[in-house]
Amino acid sequence: MKRFLLVVAIGAGVALGGCGDDEAPTATGTTTRPAGASATRSVPAATAVAPKLGNPLSVAEWSGPLEVTVHSYRQPLPTPAPTPKSAGHQYAAIDVQVCNRTESLVQMVGPKPFALTFASRAPLAPYNFATGDFPSPAFPKEHSLAGGACVRGWIPFDVPDGRPTGIRYSESSQAPGGGKAYTWPVG
After folding, report:
1. Domain locations along the chain
2. Exposed e or buried b for every residue in 84-101, given b needs 16+ CB within 10 A?
3. What is the rounded distance in angstroms from the CA atom of residue 124 to the CA atom of residue 185?
4. Among 177, 155, 151, 179, which Cα is nearest to 167's?
5. Where are the compositionally biased (Low complexity) regions (predicted)?
6. Distance CA 115, CA 84 (A)
């Protein structure tokens, strides 16, 4: 009986040993450590290299791969932009392009993943009440993007004070790896 249980236990261990994820990790990074430092420190999966304005960035959304490019940032907007309703505010806008990198899958895109980041305040979501007075073409609020297609336009923001430090794109939390955030520095 003991021999039978030993064979069953070894067989189960061998069978389960082959059950694993053979895919390579999706997050990559290079770290250096000083001499004598512990080798157990790791780079968090959400770490992302800062993209540059005008350069495309590949992102992994839950529905498939996208390519996101932030072309430029404007603040203040040239006239005839509307006057902000709150004193001290300025309107700003980002020129973005999103491309669907799947062959045939339709993906929903819109301005929600974008935000402006600041050194001393919470990120700022896009302004929802854009009119024809803002730069055009406007980036669509919600758009079905066919496989291989791209959409480009301006996303406005109502900036309360100062200038942002960056433009953030946040992947969905359902994206592979839990969703990363990428920030383009604003000069």
Report:
1. 47-78+90-187
2. eeeeeebbbbbbbebbbb
3. 15
4. 155
5. 25-42
6. 18
Q: Which residue has the tokens 């291989």?
A: 148
CB 139 within 8 A of CB 109: no
CA dihedral sign, ordered 150, 107, 178, 117: positive
For the entire predicted model, the pTM comes to 0.72
Tens of pLDDT, residues 17-60: 444 333 333 333 333 333 433 333 333 344 456 899 999 999 98
Domain 47-78+90-187 has CATH 3.40.50.300: no
Q: How many helices (H) and strands (E) does the chain have?
A: 1, 9
What letter represents residue 59's amino acid? V
Whole-Å CA distances, 102 to 116, 134, 168: 28, 31, 23
